[in-house]
Design a protein that fits this description.
The protein is of the alpha/beta class and about 260 residues long. The chain is built from five helices and 14 strands. Strand 3 and strand 4 form a beta hairpin.
Length: about 260
């Protein structure tokens, strides 16, 4: 039986517009992360390099640890990227891609306190199977480089305590790859990356303000052990921690790219 609920504050017009979108939801879930065109996969410096590939969704290699101060500036993030981080942001997720053409990366959560920025958690991660790009296009199998907001979440599982508005829908987020156990839990939890999407809508909403050719449906979601169509994936423990930690009042953003372009 299908269940669809939303937890958190949703703009009235958006909630009304999406209330009866069952069939559309299923199409959007399939298109998110390039699932319809990907035959085998769901999307799907200063910091240490990621260990040789992220583990599966139930085998986290790293987890939250006691906060470590990094000072007034995030390590490995250059002037151009740093200037794009809103001054009001007190939570930043940085995804350090190993190389331009690599699917391996490291996700680090930073939070700003009275004494400056602190590194509060980190997990190995995966990005697009062909690496990174500054000109993302539909189905190019690369993850866009840039700074993007994190405002909306959801998944096939119930709300684990998300501070972001959370859309629980056991149909809209279901993977279309039903015969592959590796992808069975990809969308248990997702956080939408605000690249070419309608902010305030469920992650599966198909709105593309900059046009379909610019791609979209790029999420943080559970890792399946290898590269994605454009999304970024982390172990289940990482998704649960991010959902329970990222606070709309702290204006969380993600800064992501290969290490070379992050430093620009």
């Amino acid at each position: 039986m299908r269940k669809s609920t939303v937890t958190g504050s949703v703009p009235g017009s958006t909630a009304r517009r999406l209330r009866h979108g069952g069939a559309r939801h299923a199409i959007c879930a399939a298109l998110a992360c390039g699932l319809l065109l990907a035959a085998t996969d769901a999307c799907g410096t200063g910091e240490p390099s990621s260990p040789g590939g992220a583990p599966g969704n139930n085998n986290p290699a790293m987890s939250p640890s006691p906060p470590a101060s990094v000072g007034s500036r995030l390590p490995g993030v250059g002037d151009r990227m740093w200037q794009q981080v809103p001054a009001a942001s007190r939570q930043v997720v940085v995804i350090y891609g190993d190389r331009r053409d690599s699917p391996d990366s490291l996700l680090v959560l930073y939070e700003r306190g009275a004494a400056g920025w602190e590194r509060t958690a980190a997990w190995p991660a995966h990005n697009g199977r062909l690496g990174w790009t500054t000109d993302h296009r539909m189905d190019d199998e690369r993850t866009p480089v840039g700074v993007f907001g994190l405002t909306d979440a959801g998944g096939t599982l119930g709300n684990p305590g998300s501070r972001l508005p959370y859309w629980h829908d056991d149909h809209a987020f279901a993977s279309t790859i039903t015969d592959d156990e590796a992808h069975a839990h990809d969308f248990d939890y997702v956080i939408a990356i605000n690249y070419n999407r309608l902010v305030g809508a469920p992650p599966y909403d198909w709105s593309r303000p900059d046009g379909v050719e610019k791609g979209g449906g790029i999420w943080l979601h559970l890792d399946h052990g290898d590269g994605t169509s454009a999304c970024v994936t982390v172990p289940e423990s990482g998704m649960r921690t991010l959902l329970r930690t990222l606070d709309p009042g702290d204006h969380p953003v993600v800064v992501m790219g290969d290490r070379e372009r992050l430093m620009s």
